[in-house]
Amino acid sequence: MTLFEEGRNRTGPATLTVDAVVVGLGAGGSMALRQLARDGVSVLGLEAGGRHTPAQFNQREDEMLPLLFQDGGGRMTADLAIRVLQGRGVGGSTLHNTNLCKRTPSAILEQWALDYGVSGASAADLDRSYAAVEADLSITEIPEDAINGNNRLLQRGVSALGWRGGVLRHNRVGCRRSGFCELGCAYDAKQNAAKILVPQAMEAGGRVFSDARVDRILHDGSRATGVAGTFVDDAGNATFPFEIRAKIVVLGGSATGSAALALASNVPDPYDRCGRGLRLHPGSVAAGVFEHPVDAHRGIPQSYECTEYLEFGRGAEKRVWILTAFAHPIGTASMLPGFGVKHMTRMRKYRHLAVFSAMVHDETEGRVIAGEGGRPVLQYAMTEADRRQLAMGLRACGRLLLAAGATEVTFPAIDAPTVTTDAALNALSMDFVRPHTLAMSAVHPMGSMALGDDPKRSVVASTGEHHQLKGLFVADGSLFPTSLGVPPQWSIYAFAHHLSPHMIDAIKR
Ligand SMILES: Cc1cc2nc3c(=O)[nH]c(=O)nc-3n(C[C@H](O)[C@H](O)[C@H](O)COP(=O)(O)OP(=O)(O)OC[C@H]3O[C@@H](n4cnc5c(N)ncnc54)[C@H](O)[C@@H]3O)c2cc1C
Ligand code: SF4
Questions:
Q1: Which of 67, 115, 193, 470 has its CA 20 to 30 A from that of 210?
Q2: Residue 394 within a domain
Q3: Out of 9-18, 335-344, 411-420, which region has the weakest mean confidence (pLDDT)?
Q4: Distance between CA atoms of 121 and 298, rounded to whole angstroms?
Q5: Could you tell me the residue range of the domain that residue 203 belongs to?
């Protein structure tokens, strides 16, 4: 029996019976797969995307975006206001994320317990799982000498203004500091789900089908009984069907994919909760021009954070995480404002640009619905409070850039608001900070199938099991009742690890 099968090479349909089937092999799904396999469970992981190896990561934006990202990197909220980047393939979004690792702050976990009825998920309850992930993924502090030009400037701005900031932690080993993290690592330095967890799952006897898109969760109205779907070819076209019968189904399709699949499968939802509560951490950037080359495209892309505007817990008044952002030429060209000569003039300053981003620890509750063919449609209308947070954060980015020595600061908005002094920045109306006027993006979808013990307010219990459909578990970013305000991957891995004993119990039940 081969443990890994590429669905694109199938020559016929497949029907299998296993104990557990995991849908989607990103951070959460891969961890669940590994934990179940290690417990001796017969488990099969199904991933809609392909299996990619470092040899394929050729550092070209035009080839890597279509290969590694959902919708070729063009996924947007339904109103086209926010670009939402998510991964596709064995390893999911961990293949091309920027490897930052932070635990969910205890204030957020306390808020979940008090306001959302989540039990058994305090910082102390989760500590064992966070520690296990820390060891699995070799999470360490980014070395001081790996801070690149862009991040050095953020550090300089933070220190000039006397604001809070610090060096971040990451999951890289043997990093060559090439700067291509978001296009996949050709040097195999990322300690991600594809490199660590999926091979460990297979060593323990777990099986994987790539190019295997799940279209439906099979159930009898009260219990999940398996999944059905189709193998896909290189172009994503359906080839042969498959049907997997299982005692439990674990959803790891992300905060967009899992909810869309549950909705398309008519999973019982008497309180209309499935898909609701979507958070994105939406953000935008400020670009500063420096007299000397910054070469922000070289080196580890993000290594320093500013937390001056970030508080956690109920009633937090500052909800913006500031860090650096940078892109390769196509990405930068798509963000820089202006047309023709104006745009070209800005692009010619590419090596002299530093870019800081403001990411909102959002309260806006978006919604995932199942569109045509079960595709996730993301409805997200940013609240006025979140819009004001973003405006505050972008002004702070501008202040940091000027404090670090920028001669000019521009925002990626219609009319390209540009300032050269603090006084001009203070006087600048931030009214352009709104959907369809400012370019916004998001890389952290969360929520949509939230945890909690009250079925009227949550989709799954604190064990991760669906309130209505026994044997259906969620193990990905969908679980979070609020946004985290920190990068989510460590928490997603940790929650999947923490909930896996409940999955094993359900198989034995
Ligand atoms: C550019 C970028 C940078 C980021 N940087 C960081 C960072 O520095 N730190 C951090 O903590 N986080 C970062 N993130 C976010 C982080 O990677 C994600 O939060 C995390 O990977 C989400 O885990 P998940 O298990 O919810 O889903 P994902 O990792 O997105 O995986 C979901 C998988 O499920 C598959 N799938 C979906 N539906 C189906 C279906 N019906 N059938 C079969 N398969 C399906 C998808 O193809 C995908 O492979 C970044 C993300 C991006 C895009
Ligand atoms: S910076 Fe490091 S982790 Fe990122 S692509 Fe280069 S070698 Fe890989």
A1: 470
A2: yes
A3: 335-344
A4: 39
A5: 4-52+89-97+102-136+192-274+447-508
